[in-house]
Amino acid sequence: MRLKLLCITFLFSINFYSQIDPVLLKRTSKDSTKQALNMDAVYNRPFLNIGKTPIAVGGYLEANWQRLSTDGVSEGHQFQARRLTIFMSSAISKRVKFLSEIEFEEGGKEIAIEFASVDVEFNPLVNFRGGIIMNPIGAFNQNHDGPKWEFTDRPISATQMLPSTFSNAGAGLFGKKYSKNWMIGYEAYFSGSFDNSIIENTENKTFLPAAKNNPERFEEINSGLPLFTSKIAIRNSKIGELGLSYMGGVYNKFQDEGIILDKKRRVDIYALDFNTTLPKIKTFITSELAWVKVDVPETYGQQFGNKQFGGFIDIVQPLLTKNVLGWENVVLNLACRLEYVDWNVGTFNETSGNIAEDIWSIMPALSFRPTSQTVFRLNYRFQKQTDILGNPPATTDGFSVGVSTYF
Question: Domain of life of the organism in this record (predicted)?
Fold first, then answer.
């Protein structure tokens, strides 16, 4: 029923906008590469304003071709409609704003409200946000729009270890302060939380993204206790941005109608992110590291790790910037992503040998940007994945070609 209502609302909005005189539509274009804190990403997007009304719409598309093989076995050529994301915003009053982000994944197979909140400004340092919020753990979870990246795939650590674009019903405060070359910002929210699916899932391992499959998290908290997420970020215009974030809370249903079922079991996540642009050569570097700690019951097997670690680093080097075919400031980039995840940090109880369940990947890339809001990407992935017993790793490699653009 909810899916039908969402589709009807979306189709109605398309019909509504189609009846508006095009001369009343005005593009508010924002450079996706401009220097700002990652927390600004939710508003640092191009929107289409409707005349003098407070309503604006926008979005982005991601699609690609891919051919990968693992140990020589391939599923052949694949065309993928990764996602179509729609933004809708409204300046309700001078200090009250609303913004929503609705994502259609895999050709509409999955539809999710990733963000739908009301922001109320009391002071630049004290602002209220409530509704469906995006938990600011790390940098990618906040700044994930496809056109901003040179790679067709999202980072492994941000999607398969951390729950990418993890959002929940919640509320909290955020704010920023500027002083000459320095910017500092913070966010702090209480929200819906994880549940037992992070250790009871088809992956048969500790897997935080499994919690995203539970739509009930927008209506009730499994443990009855809210998740707390906080982040502080500081940027120097000549050095870069450093972010520290934390997300944690009780995930299990430890009591039912006053009857104690289990002890309170926590999940705690810490993340560190940094990005900078090297002067003169304009090399852009962005990186993120994350540590996960989960209180797994003693009755579970050792394949359910209580500690995980992972991260990635992207290096993007502009090779050419010039006017081409009527486009101004076309950019050709050479890029590379290095990433690693250890799903189970620790040793076996019986042998004290290393639990070798990890994955690493290197992904060189070429990207072509006719404008800052559109990117064509050619990627090659070389990946090694080792199972829990430390058997010879499975090798995955192959090419992908994709396009992503704001609209």
Answer: Bacteria
Q: Is the predicted pLDDT of residue 130 greater than 70, yes or no?
A: yes
Reduce the DSSP state of residue 121 to 3 states and report it.
strand
Find the angle CA(102)-CA(104)-CA(106) to the nearest 5 degrees: 160
Q: To which H or E segment does residue 349 belong?
A: none
Which residues on neighbouring strands pair with residue 177, listed in sequence order?
184
Cβ atoms of 378 and 367 within 8 Å: the answer is yes
At the fourth CATH level, the homologous superfamily of domain 2-406 is Porin (2.40.160.10)
pLDDT at 200 over 70: yes
Q: Please, which residues have CB within 8 angstroms of residue 338's CB and are 6 or more apart in sequence?
A: 312, 313, 360, 361, 362, 363
Among the listed residues 252, 15, 32, the one whose alpha carbon sits nearest the alpha carbon of residue 144:
32
Q: Closest by alpha carbon to 31, among 182, 148, 165?
A: 148
pLDDT value, residue 109: 80
SS3 326: coil
pTM of model > 0.70? yes
Q: Model confidence over 320-354: pLDDT tens digits?
A: 999 988 899 999 999 999 999 999 999 998 888 99
Q: Is the pLDDT of residue 13 over 70?
A: no
